[in-house]
């Protein structure tokens, strides 16, 4: 095992390059030098520049590292929960008791308590890593008056750490007529402008959020920088508009199907030439990771006879998101001069594209980011990098290299095992933890100096949605109440909180996930019946839940009997 990551080496295996001709090398070597791919050759060839470089035999299939353009990492310690009925738009469930009990309330606690902030950041990033994801959307830490984007192990789409990678620019809230002009101006800037778009059914008010992108003069605030997440409310005519203006989409079928019983018309989008990437959304109502989302997309596509292929699905997690981000010159395929972001899947037999879709977490043998081995089997990772920590993943021993010797200035050093223990205990005692929160204890102090922030500044994990309108805690100056989701004050979260279990890192072996899957009545039967078998599980029978009716009850706000009609959520 090297004392430091090695910088020059070759990885040998079956290569699925995802280059323009979609070259497959059944026995090839990816040669890596100083963080980039220096050459791609047959196994029998050694470039002169790599004479003497070690060659690691992976006995696997090597893919470009997967790129995810839609994931709310801050929520991914929370488990999948049962959706009590079919919804037509996101506003219908954002103010329900169940959503606050299982998602926004626990997330508010996690985002505000120092030890839980640190533990969450470490845990959820590793949750992406163990599934072969090398780029995802980032985690934002917030203090007054500045923000700090966490630049961790997995590459951050909003804060990329390599020259030539233009930062993405996400927008969670819908574009309203009042801010259409400013949004249009933002499209003129560099970097993908990624926003949640028309999340709901085409027959609901969700579609209006798309129509609001059209100005009074008939022009549209859509350009090649425009990227719409979900887009479930778009009609065929709407998709034509997106295509005509060069816009792109991010598809999250599992989340869409669970909530709305329908998803975006991806087959039509692709026929129109719209670039489509795949995103797993988040664990409370969706897949844990891209491996799970790929399976759902494949099962759904075959069931509905959409016609898209396994190759096209793999493109949705490699070359297409790279193109959407404008990163295609450096990522998305295995080619010389590109960054060495690589995922190795066990085995070399069968269709090369179906092989990735069929893979489960225990099949991920090695993940390399920027040429540095970050995760894998102890033997393979140990050939490339020091092993900081070993952890059980889907019943298998896996190793991590997490740079704990050079930690993020706000996060500081924390081990994955410690993070899992801290989070599991806090979630199991969520009612008590919520009741015990004191405003004086909120927010963490940075591990090291952060430019623009005072040494005693308190940092919070920024969440993607605001607290429920009308219920605001009274907090001391400098503390951001939007991060707390009313864990104190009127109608406290503690009064409705329930014990929760930490969502395991992997889908494989997660009994609670597969038990819940059987209860997701909005999912097509094909997904509920077939997905368990992809993980060696037997489909379960639905179980009764006496809390379902209560969970769908709107939160009663002071002076009103119904939840707010709009607001940012996901």
Number of strands: 21
Q: What is the SS-derived class?
A: alpha/beta
CATH topology of one domain: Urease, subunit C, domain 1
Overall morphology: globular
Q: In which order are the strands of the major sheet placed?
A: 3-2-1-4-15-16-17-19-18
Helix fraction bin: 25-40%
Annotated CATH architecture of one domain? Roll
* CATH superfamily (homologous) name of one domain: Urease, subunit C, domain 1
Approximate strand percentage: 15-25%
The Rg value, from CA coordinates, equals: 23 Å
Mean pLDDT: 89
Q: Give the CA-CA distance, first to last residue.
A: 43 Å
Total DSSP helices: 18
List keywords for this structure.
570 residues, alpha/beta, Urease, subunit C, domain 1, nine-stranded mixed sheet, five-stranded parallel sheet, 18% strand
Task: Give a short summary of the structure.
The chain is of the alpha/beta class. It has 18 helices and 21 strands.
Please characterize this protein's 3D structure.
The chain has 570 residues and is an alpha/beta fold. Helices cover 27% and strands 18% of the residues. The protein has 18 helices and 21 strands. Strands 3-2-1-4-15-16-17-19-18 form a nine-stranded mixed beta sheet. A hairpin with a 2-residue loop joins β16 (364-369) and β17 (372-376).
